[in-house]
Amino acid sequence: MPETLLTARDLTVTFPDGNGGLHALGAVSFSVAPQEFVCVIGPSGSGKSTLLRVLAGLIQPSSGVVDYACGSSPRIGFVFQQANLMPWRTVHENIVLPLEVNGENAQSANQKAQEMVDLVGLAGFENAYPRDLSGGMAQRVAIARALIHDPDILLLDEPFGSLDALTRERMWMELSRIWQARRPHRDGSSKTVIMVTHSISEALFLADRVLVLTARPGKIRLDLTVDLPRPRSDEMRYTPHFGKLARQLKDAIG
Amino acid sequence: MDINPIRKLEGFTNPKQIPHTYWVAPLTALIVVFGWELTVRLMHLPTIILPSPIQVLERFGELLVSGSLMKSTSATFIEIVLGLLAGSITATLLGYFIAKSHLFERLVSPFLVASQAVPVVAIAPLLFIWFDTGMFTKVLICALIVFFPVLINTVVGIRAVPQSLHELMRSLRATRWQILRHLEIPAALPVFLGGLRIGATLSVIGAVVGESVSLDSGLGLMITQGRGGYDTPQVFVAVFTLVGLALSLYGIVLLLEKKFLAWQDINHS
Questions:
Q1: Would the N or C end of chain B have less CB density within 10 A of its end CB?
Q2: Contact B171 A56 (CB under 8 A)
Q3: Domain that holds residue B213
Q4: What is the ipTM of this complex?
């Protein structure tokens, strides 16, 4: 197993704005190990989402490179800020979309979809349309859709940002559980996750490592290892160690 | 037949909340016909000005028996179907490329918009001079009228596909064809069918305009002949047949919407 799944070197992104360009990202370098759960945190406008889109291949970096150990076109599972479901497809049809795009045969696709539906706890809602789902349920569908084709990396862009506080905390538990349930991955490793967030608690609750980006142009200010034991519980958030880590992040975000 | 799309928009979507209103349209029609008959009788209007409903019905029977109504209707119907197909297919293809390419849009949209300022009625005689008085020109006129609403709605529909869903498809490394099939077509379909609904109704006008100039067959000819021969009941028969055609086409598009846009409808099973 390679030591790093992903290496980003000197990534910069400049958007043309007719005024010398908008520097969204300035020389970002880091690497991510297989199975690692990395959170990227930073003030609004620090280029977090831009970074994630570069990693997904949706945006070409202005300079720098992204190297995946698994080859030049890794399988991506992307979860957006809004659930981003297709309103004309049922829950089942939404989840199965990546397999349709990959040309997988219908029978095995349906079987995998059913596994995913069970995994994210939506059994009984297979034939519901997105408009009938709550925000949390829609986001579960989005997570199932992002996982069904067994991606090399799961990229999450503030996936719980639009949910209410209670639902959000329940989704943290769910995501932890799903992330651990998906081990072992097809090559014996678990899913590698990079998640953008603006919540310190969310980052500490979920991540093995937190990268703090500065304000625009985004650079990495802090690379913090979260050494809290797993599985993590609600209680952990009231321990002194959690408080200390939170403080470090808070200071780095500024 | 439910020809009122507004009801859907207003949110009266729960069938339990909508009182049964199917009887309203027939009742209204009955009242209008009754009022019409009464007006003709009370004011002693001559048939040439306004025939009574009974006279129109009699003429309808005669034209039906002689077979000329069927002949005219089928001629017009074929023109409409061909014109609708030709117009909407061209408009869909062109609309898609306009929506996808700004350069292409810059290139063709001034001409398209300018062409809409020219009434088809005005250029219809020209077209007959250029192309012949046959079927082709009548279908062409019909297609020209259908073209614009379908084009505009295709452009609007394709442009309105959410950027985030495009990102999703690209993150899955979907091909252009897959993006078209799985995203753009289903996402644009509601707006597109709205355009087709307008186009279907307008296509009837196109056919009549063509026939009124070419004067060789169809319901347009029947109207012109009726007017020329002071046969007002025949004009009425032709007009009502045209209305029937327009309503049928409209209904077909509604059926398509019901079939393909079930996901929009809260009443789905």
A1: C
A2: yes
A3: 58-264
A4: 0.90
